[in-house]
Amino acid sequence: MSLNSFGRVFRFSTWGESHGPAIGAVVDGCPPGLAINEADIQPFLDKRRPGTSKFTTQRQEPDQVRILSGVFEGKTTGTPISLMIENVDQRSKDYSDVAKAYRPGHADYAYDAKYGFRDYRGGGRSSARETASRVAAGAVARLVIPDVDIFAYVSEIGGDAIDYARFDAAQIDENPFFCPDPIAAKRWETLVDGARKDGSSLGAVVECVASGVPAGWGAPLYAKLDSELAAAMMSINAVKGVEIGDGFAAARLRGEQNADPMRPGPDGLPLFGANHAGGIAGGISTGQPIKVRIAFKPTSSILIPVDTITREGEAADIITKGRHDPCVGIRGVPVVEAMMALVLADQMMLHRAQCG
Amino acid sequence: MSLNSFGRVFRFSTWGESHGPAIGAVVDGCPPGLAINEADIQPFLDKRRPGTSKFTTQRQEPDQVRILSGVFEGKTTGTPISLMIENVDQRSKDYSDVAKAYRPGHADYAYDAKYGFRDYRGGGRSSARETASRVAAGAVARLVIPDVDIFAYVSEIGGDAIDYARFDAAQIDENPFFCPDPIAAKRWETLVDGARKDGSSLGAVVECVASGVPAGWGAPLYAKLDSELAAAMMSINAVKGVEIGDGFAAARLRGEQNADPMRPGPDGLPLFGANHAGGIAGGISTGQPIKVRIAFKPTSSILIPVDTITREGEAADIITKGRHDPCVGIRGVPVVEAMMALVLADQMMLHRAQCG
Amino acid sequence: MSLNSFGRVFRFSTWGESHGPAIGAVVDGCPPGLAINEADIQPFLDKRRPGTSKFTTQRQEPDQVRILSGVFEGKTTGTPISLMIENVDQRSKDYSDVAKAYRPGHADYAYDAKYGFRDYRGGGRSSARETASRVAAGAVARLVIPDVDIFAYVSEIGGDAIDYARFDAAQIDENPFFCPDPIAAKRWETLVDGARKDGSSLGAVVECVASGVPAGWGAPLYAKLDSELAAAMMSINAVKGVEIGDGFAAARLRGEQNADPMRPGPDGLPLFGANHAGGIAGGISTGQPIKVRIAFKPTSSILIPVDTITREGEAADIITKGRHDPCVGIRGVPVVEAMMALVLADQMMLHRAQCG
Amino acid sequence: MSLNSFGRVFRFSTWGESHGPAIGAVVDGCPPGLAINEADIQPFLDKRRPGTSKFTTQRQEPDQVRILSGVFEGKTTGTPISLMIENVDQRSKDYSDVAKAYRPGHADYAYDAKYGFRDYRGGGRSSARETASRVAAGAVARLVIPDVDIFAYVSEIGGDAIDYARFDAAQIDENPFFCPDPIAAKRWETLVDGARKDGSSLGAVVECVASGVPAGWGAPLYAKLDSELAAAMMSINAVKGVEIGDGFAAARLRGEQNADPMRPGPDGLPLFGANHAGGIAGGISTGQPIKVRIAFKPTSSILIPVDTITREGEAADIITKGRHDPCVGIRGVPVVEAMMALVLADQMMLHRAQCG
To answer: Which of the two ends of chain D, N or C, has the fewest CB atoms closer than 10 A to its terminal CB?
Structure first.
């Protein structure tokens, strides 16, 4: 059943808890002969790394990745690639209250209901720290599909959206919010800082685009490209919604508005007049850019007291001390990119398996 | 890789094309000893059946299911349950144009790009007809989780939403739209009929609720209940978006607004003050109702000409003759319910495997 | 978990019971564009078909296969291929005793212990009749690997082995035992007929060779080619042992005897001086013929009374009336060939997925 | 496809090469609440550990296991258990010849044919060192099925078999061969030492028995208990044959000889008169002890020169310097036990999933 694995052919598994000695990923099925070393992975981890601005958690983790297997003389061998990241800056003392009472919005109660007890330190396995393992695995996935270009950005925080007329991809890495609209990025400084000072938190919407995917990746019917992407994105902590292409907005269009008309293109490929479909039809890529939109709820760890119950079922209230992201969607950007890369690498190989 | 299977423990596979001799599902891993016969499955198929009102396709299919294996003396034996539905009312002649040119919004071009050719009759494998197999499998799944109550309804068609103040579950089966708001249902008659007469089509939003799910189903991290539901729903034809609980609206809330506060309840279980999370935290059920929202795009088969290209890459325009749903989301309701049942039956068994 | 499926990329599932209306297989992941029709499958089923000589069961089954999906205009489409074989000559009345008491050597007791009850007619799901579905699926698999030549034969019945000095592949289809040694085949007539008249049964050894497999198929470590073959063969009814290459005899060799020395060959490939390894090293094919040896126990259905207990736990004795193979290993030959084809088709595609 | 994972519900993956920094296993799906720490795993690793007698390789590896995740306050949490063993005594210089030419019987040529190159140090991923990871995972599996007793032993080395009349389980741990017959153990000292001094190697047969398995574990048809065991055992390095119960000897019995007659037993369970079936009928356990027999070929690493070719295809001869087991089957004993435990833990959970 592979509770902690993802992918069909290019497949990765993650392990580790927020406050254990380390976290990691094992990538299985990677093609042989790809040039790789730790320096190819580290930049993606650095992008996700906490403690880089006042808008993210102040936990200081170097997130230094080690390759423990599957690479020989700088190339992948085709055997499992074991990636390990040590946990350095755990402060278990912060979590004493959490051991006793459930934080609403967190997995605390659900874990106790399922397993009978839980590793309460920093959320244990349910901590967003696990996503560092995905980012490391995603860096490997990118090497498998070198012609695919993937980028994500935050398009909305706390209901305040970017202006697409000002969209500038070059801006994304120029501000702490991965925001392509510099005016919105300015507004968000105030917004996020305000939430942080209030001990509150904000939700966000992340958008991800993959271009360079040829027509033909994906498969009917339960391995559809959009179905895999939905599973991948919804598995990220705090994600509550996924849209492909126009998503919910498509439900408000008429058939003729939603059609992506085709005309003969210069290179024998179709020239599409629109991309309402987000690059996927019938679960299979059309050659247009793949577009996914993801909703992150506000961080559940807040300093404002919320009604709850204790493990013994008594009424209590709880605040979540410790160091938390006021808007977990921001650091979701590299995670979304990693999941996109992981799904596409898998689908490329799956396609190659069946169609040669 | 199981391209056409879904589920981990309670697992089903579907096969069949729109215009082949039959379609079907094989359900594997079903618990033994459950009382079942064709009459337990048929009502769900009847609910999805085409040709029952002028708001759905006029194709006439009795959708009579046969159980070919896995049941002995009226009880499941624990071996695979093979379910077959014969195709009766195929009219292959309607699809001659489709053989030559690609219908925008359909899988035609993507299938050709992937496989080199396609069964163009009625969309072949990409036809929504496949969902009848899911509905049959879903009827079996319901027997596995008898204490779970599942229902879905249409909450919006063509951008016209129900008024939740008028929500009446008893109304859902009283109109051809599975609409819980009788006033909206009236409006939709005009709306859908208008689109049909225009040769156009409309999108829709379907909502699904499962109550009676105990806390503890689901699993970290890539087998999360919400991740499985997202994959399940996104695998349905024409679906472009999935939300759990508040979904994208959660991205606009602050942490303290989005928390679902807990208080001690009368029976030792928590009493939740809200259900923004849609019954799932950390990928595991909380005991609250599971809530999912699904966006269906407008049917791509329309009578309004759209620019396209032929298989040879020439410019053309195309209209889709034949018999089609003006709003495919309507008949999506029993399919969404089936997928919910299939995911939950699987998760119940998965939970039992690990936690006894 | 896919209890009734096999394969990773080229994947098939079977369903059906001995005395239900039909049995069948669904083949998923098949490459598109392969020419196929029922006539390509039927000869393999005919080879396995009961009632063709007095040395096999007298049940008369035409075993006519129907392709219900996945093929369009005579070519595979890449979607699931549903294959169905109707059961024609069931005689359920033969099995009344079996309903009450357990046949030693059969699955009766184990099924009851697991599921609480069982379809006792002809062994239900545990009947060797299921292997017809595998043979049908195997015929499809052969199309995926057209350059691989697969054949199997019986090398031993009831302890009486062929003389390899007389091995003649052309003889295999010239006698009812798939025996490559015509002298042994003559002896076996008397041997098997004697066992049949005694109401007893005999075991057999089947050997299978696949040539034309290039070096490089298979994978470490739990997808090893030999591991997959062992699972495939051991899943066949009545199989109790599997050997690759020299098998148990290798355990009696010294390292230098067991080595398969290599010399440069005429075409740039190695020329091997022996094939103790059976064509597999480290779980990966070496380019030599793949060799597997399979032990079939004697048919458990015999007319000689055996001590047993009833469902209520009372002492009883039982004989198995009905029509049975005196040596089930004989009809195992086309099943073993089918499993070889199914494993190799899968491994070819798996290799293509990872290594391009 | 999970090339390096095994199991359906209780599932483990291994990673690592002979001469990399470490090897390890990730166990996924383990039930929560089981008491465990490193000291529960270490004795099994110590049993497999090299360098403990002159009859095994002289490589000195402490094989100290670390638990990196999935355990909190001494109990399994239900999340992945990451187990790591550092490689300490690598001597990469020993393997320079191996880089240039292929060792017959080894995976060298097959790996190069598949992947284009290979980590030649100590066999890389194909080294038997990987089995330490299995032994660690197997120690966890044993905790899941505490009522099952598993033991294995060597029954034959180099064709010299034990005398079953002298079988004494208490002797197994009293000699360096895991031999239950003290007289045979004495003979093997001379035998194995002779092979070692000759620079040669010997094959072996290992037998494994699991008692305490209740009737009902296992499943039709491709998840049969015997099929899973065959795959598990055949995945171990150097294994070339697997038998369940009487195995190939059953092929020489008549039906009435091979039947395991049943009589009412004292506790409501059947009392079996024999166990030819090895505790499995129809792929499902019968309540009798599970019996498996496994053939290990002689170690391919020998000091006697063998004809081979270089990577460039030139004729050469090769001897394998370095430190090797003269009989790899001996250290196979704890590995076989581990695989038995891993299969049974998985099957128990699989049974619980379906049958409650």
So the answer is: C
